[in-house]
Amino acid sequence: MEHPYSPSSAKRGNIASLMEVLAVSAKLGVTSFGGPIAHLGYFHHEYVKRRKWMDEQSYADLVALCQFLPGPASSQVGIGIGIARAGLIGGAVAWLGFTLPSVVALVAFAFLLHGFDIATAGWIHGLKIVAVAVVAHAVLGMGQKLAAGRSRTAIALLAAAVAVCWQTALSQVLIIAAAAFIGTRLFRTQAGDRLPAFPGAVSRSAGLICLGLFVALLLALPLAARWSGAEWLDWFARFYRSGALVFGGGHVVLPLLEREVVAPGWVSRPDFLAGYGAAQAVPGPLFTFAAYLGALAGGIGGAVVATAAIFLPAFLLIVGALPFWSVLRSQPSVQGALAGINAAVVGILLAALYDPLWTSAILDARDFALAVLLFGMLAFWKLPPWSVVLAGAAGGTLLGIIA
């Protein structure tokens, strides 16, 4: 039986497979509300459950890798899946499809909708409830696969408890590191299975080139901007630095971006905060907030420069790490660490389901009722996520009217 992501099932790099990746990632780009944790749930449903582009183990290992790398983890997972399906160009196409819808929306906010208060709109609240249903479904599905057995369940529950009670930029990294250490002790003897090579493997030479470029650009861009005096190069250097130095997800990038664009006077603090509110209302990665800032500072050109610069480190890092990850993930000690990490990721998902998703979205019994219906649409009726998003937006609007 042909493997679902074997090279023969998708000739990597040809036009048909690239268009397929673009179409699927673009659909996710317009329906994936709720932030990076929810994105992993959408990806799991679409890429693993429905299309079987990647098996459960490879997806879990890819998520574990991206949790360790700086940058937007969900975008890096999407890039990795695109590489698995259609090679390096497929990774770029997957990023473009997932990212472009929110870029367009936030640039439109910058030009047309700036100053409008949408934070209390009923449909926005409905989208928050959608995120609750999506993450709950992801926790259920991933927990059955990755947190089975007493030891893994214990790791997941401890990770959830720590993540809820200790919410800092560093906590998630430390939780994952601790779970990896525990995994090497508990699961190493159970983890000797030979895993298939990671699909769409990148050559080591390409990986080393990307890692070298990541470091070289981080060091050279500020010097080049200062030497040349070109404002667009200064923008590129500042957004690249923000994307390269972020651990802990999209929200952590906000103080870095504020320092880079508010302090020089490119964007005012009220405009910065208004854009952050708008970023919560659109699907896709929160890093596309950079497009809004770039549009305010330099129009369409500024939006393009800011978006390319903030995501470039993520692409270089995932491409640079994959060839070595393909080898390491087959080692018994690494497999043991991954078993611990994957259980911890389930716990982190569970913690995120409570805070910030549940605490900000489920405010009364009617919200809970809508969340239950949306969860049923995903888990039992097996309806596509886009229909759940539309139902959530409509339900939120209706709740706002009858409040």
UniProtKB/TrEMBL annotation:
The keyword Transmembrane helix applies. It holds the Pfam family Chromate_transp. Keywords: Cell membrane, Membrane, Transmembrane, Transmembrane helix. The keyword Glycosyltransferase does not apply. The chain crosses the membrane at residues 93-116, 122-143, 155-182, 202-227, 239-257, 277-297, 304-328, 334-354, 361-380. Belongs to the chromate ion transporter (CHR) (TC 2.A.51) family. InterPro entries: Chr_Tranpt_l_chain (IPR014047), Chromate_transpt (IPR003370). The lineage of its organism: Bacteria, Bacillati, Bacillota, Bacilli, Bacillales. It is found in: Cell membrane. It is a multi-pass membrane protein. It comes from the Bacteria. This is Chromate efflux transporter. The gene is chrA.
